[in-house]
Amino acid sequence: MRPPADMTCHELVELMTAYLERALPPAERERFEAHRHGCPGCRAHISQVRLTVSSLRQLQPSPGEDLSAEQRRILDLFRTRGLHRQEPQVRDIPLGLGSELAAPGDHIAYFWESEREFDATAGFLAAGLSLGEVCVLIGQDAAHERLMASLERRGLHVRALMQERQLQVATVRSSADELLLELDERIKDAVDRGMPAVRILGNLGWGRGTPSWPSDQEILRLEALVTSAVARLPSIVVCTYDVTRLPAPILQKGGLECHPLTFRSDCLRHNEHHVPPERFLEELYAGSG
Q: For every residue of the chain, which 3-state class applies, written as one string?
C-alpha cells in the first residue's frame, strides 16, 4: 500500500475547519498532523485560528437560551465568509477612505506621506462609528491624539464614545502573541455586546525603537497572523505605513507582503505582492534561525 501524499499548506488551510471540528477521516487527519508537525508557518496559523474561534464561544447559547438575531448574523459571518470558504467576499461596507467599500475580514495597508493623508485615516474610524461599530486604536499616543482631534473636528464626541466603549485604545505589547490576545479580547467584548463589527486602526510604526515596543520581527509576525485571524471575524483592519520614514524592508515585507489589500491615492487595490501568511511566516522563521 502506497503511503499518502504529503499535504500542502493550501490543502491544510482548506481542511482547517474540519480538523478543528474533528471531522477529518483518519487518513486525512494523519496527513494534516504530519504537515503540521513539520511546518512552523502552519503551526502558527493553526494557533491563530484556534484563538479567533475562541472569540465565538460566547455565541453558544446556555441551556434553554436561543441565540439572538444579531448573534446568529455574526456567527453566520464566520461560517460563510471565513478563509476556509471559497466564496468571494462581498464588499458593501463604507470604508471611510475615499469612496471605497470594504468587507469583513479585510486587512489593508494604508501608505501615507503627507499630514493630510494621515489625518484622513480618521475617516475610517468615523465611518465605523456612524454605523455603530466598535473602533480600536493601537499604536503610539501621539498618533491617537491626532486622530481623536480629527474626530472632534468631524463633530464626534470622543470622550462619550470612549465611555461607551465604542472607541477604544488597545495597550501595545512587546510580542505579537500578546498583541493578538489584546485585540482578541477587544473583539470578543464587542461581539458579546452585539456590536455589528470591529474596526482596528494600527499605527505601530510610530513607536519603533522605543522601550517595550515590539521589535520589527514581532510587528511582521503580527501583520502576517492578523491576516488569518481577522478573516474569521466581523473585523476590518487598516495598518498605516509612513513611506517617508519607515525603512524599505518594513515597507516591503510588512506593508506589501503581509496585506492582501493596499490603499494609496484614494484607491483600494488588490495587492499582487501579498504572500500567504503560512509561507511568509515560514520564510520569516527561516531568516531568523
A: CCCCCCCCHHHHHHCHHHHHCCCCCHHHHHHHHHHHHHCHHHHHHHHHHHHHHHCCHHHCCCCCCCCCHHHHHHHHHHHHHCCCCCCCCCCCEECCCCCCEECCCCEEEEEECCHHHHHCCHHHHHHHHHCCCEEEEEECHHHHHHHHHHHHHCCCCHHHHHHCCCEEECCCCCCHHHHHHHHHHHHHHHHHCCCCCEEEEEEHHHHCCCCCCCCHHHHHHHHHHHHHHHCCCCEEEEEEEECCCCCHHHHHHHHHCCCCEEEECCEEEECCCCCCHHHHHHHHHHHHC
**The pLDDT of residue 44:** 66
Task: Tell me how crowded residue 264 is: count the other CB atoms within 10 A of its CB.
Answer: 15
Average pLDDT, the chain: 83
Q: How much is the pLDDT for 82? A: 44
Residue 259 zone, left/alpha/beta (φ > 0; ψ -120 to 50; rest): beta
Cell of 211: 522601550
Please give the average per-residue pLDDT across 113-121, as a whole number: 95
Half-sphere exposure of 50 (CA within 13 A, CB side): 9
Q: Is the pLDDT of residue 125 over 50?
A: yes
- Confirm whether pTM is higher than 0.90: no
- 116, with CB counted inside 10 A (0-12, 13-18, 19+), is exposed
The answer to whether 179 touches 214, Cβ cutoff 8 Å, is yes
Q: Are strands 261-264 and 267-270 parallel, antiparallel or unpaired?
A: antiparallel
Set of cell numbers at residue 89: 467576499
